Amino acid sequence: MAIAGNQDKFFDELETMAPEAREGYLNQRLCEAVDHAYRNAPATREIFDGAKVNPPEIHTIRDLERLPIIRKTDLIELQREKPPYGGFLAIPPEDVDRVFISPGPIYEPLHTGAIKWFAKSFCAAGFRKGDVVINTFTYHLSPAGILFHEALRDCGTTVVATGTGNTEIQIRTMRDLKVTGFVGTPSFLMTIIKRAEEMGHNFQRDFTLERAWFTGEMLPDSLRKTLEEDYQIATTQAYAVTEPGGAIAYECRQKSGMHLMDEYIVEIVDPETGKQLGPGEIGEIVVTPIHNKAWGIIRFGTGDMSSYTTALCPCGRTANRLTAILGRTGDAIKVRGMFVIAKQAEQAILDLKPISQFQIVIRRREQRDEMTLKIELKDETIDREKLADDLNKRFQNLCRVKIDRIEFVEKGSIPDEHQKLIDERTWK
C-alpha cells in the first residue's frame, strides 16, 4: 500500500483502477480461482460436474450464472458428511495456517496471505499510525478479532485486544490508554458511552475517541447522527460475512455506499433464480473469494439483500458500491418484479411520525400483484390525504414499488408483535 499526499486517501493500486481494467482483473482472478478450486477441492468439482460446466467455460463474472449458489445450510451438511471441510479445502491440510469456527459449526480454513486486504477498510476510515484502537470483536473461535487486529496493525495503529464484553474494563482502558479508535458494533459503543456517563464521566471531555469502525449490525441513521453530532465521533461501517472469509465492502469518508473489495467477486442476484441483476436492482449478495486459495467456494449466498451503484465516488475509489444492507432474503417478497423488504419498508413508513404501526398485505387480482398498506395513527386528526400522498411518494422512492391502497385502521387492529409483510397470493 501507498499513502497518497492527501491523508484522507490511503489507496492500493486496485482501489483506483479504471473500471475496464478492474473488470479484466477480476475476470482473470476468477478464472484462476475456478481452475484452482476445481483441481483441488472435491466438493467444487462435484458441483461443476453436476451442473455440466467445465472450468474454462467460466471466464467472465456473467458466466457464474451457470453454477448453483452454495448456502450456509449446504456447508453445514457437507462438513457433517465429509469432515472437517466438506470437500472445499483446496490446499494441503498442512498448509492451513488457521482454522476459525462459525455457528453450525462451520470450519473455515485460512491461509495467511489472505489477510492483508482488510487494511483497506480501516485506512479508508482514517485509522493511521499514532492511533490507539480497541478491538472489541471476539478473538475466540470466529475470525473477526484476529483478522481485524492484523489489518489494524497493517495501518500502523496500536491495537488493544479487549475483545467482547466487560464494559467497565473497556471504559477504564479507553481512558487510561487515551484510545482514539473503536472497532466493534454500534450498539456496544453506545453501551460503553452510556455506562461511562452513568459512572459520572463527561464522555467528550474525559475520553479521546475520534473514530469508530462498525460491522456486524445495522447502523441506523439516527444512531450515526447521535455519535457524530453529540459525541464528535467519525463513523464508518463495513459489510462482512464470516463463511467466505471476512469484509466484503467498506465505507470511505463520503459515506455514500460501501466500496466492494477487489479480493472477491460480488454478484447481486435474484435469490429465486440466481440470475444477476443490474445497478439499482435489489437482490441477494453472492460472494466468490478470489484471494484465499485454501477455500474452494464458488458462489456463496449470504442471504443478505442489497443493490449496487456504478456511479463514481468523489473519494477517488472506483469500485462499485453496495448501497446498503436492506435485510435478509426471508424478509423479502417480490411484488411486480421488485423485492419489497421488511426493514426497508419499515424505514420508509415509520420515519413518518404520525404512524405507529403498519402491515403490508400482497394479494393477486386480475393477474396483477396488488399491495395494500394498513396503518395505525398516533394522531387521528392528521390530514390523511396528505399523509397518504407523502407516504406513497416516500415508499416508491425507497422501495421502487407503488402502493395500490392505503387503509387507515383502528388502534389495536395491528398487534405489537406482527409480521410486517403478508403474502396472500394464490397461484393457479
Find the structural class using helix and strand composition.
alpha/beta
Strand count? 23
Assigned CATH class of the largest domain: Alpha Beta
- Strand content of the residues, in percent? 25-35%
Average pLDDT: 90
Overall number of structural domains: 2
Q: CA-to-CA gap between the ends?
A: 58 Å
Numbering strands along the chain, what is their spatial order in the largest sheet?
6-5-7-8-9-10-11-16-15
* CATH fold-level label of the largest domain: Rossmann fold
Look at the structure and name the CATH superfamily of the largest domain: ANL, N-terminal domain
Task: Give an overview of the whole structure.
The protein has helices at 19-40, 42-50, 72-81, 119-124, 144-154, 167-176, 186-198, 203-206, 221-230, 342-350, 384-399; strands at residues 2-3, 10-11, 98-102, 106-110, 132-135, 158-160, 181-184, 211-214, 234-241, 246-251, 258-260, 264-269, 283-289, 300-306, 308-309, 321-322, 327-328, 332-335, 338-341, 355-365, 368-377, 405-408, 421-423. It has 428 residues and is α/β, with parallel strands linked by helices. The strands form six sheets. A nine-stranded mixed beta sheet has the order 6-5-7-8-9-10-11-16-15, sandwiched between helices. It has a four-stranded antiparallel beta sheet with strand order 12-13-14-17. The chain has a four-stranded mixed beta sheet with strand order 22-21-20-23, with helices on one face. Helix 1 packs across helix 2 (42-50). It starts with a strand and ends in a 5-residue tail after the last strand.
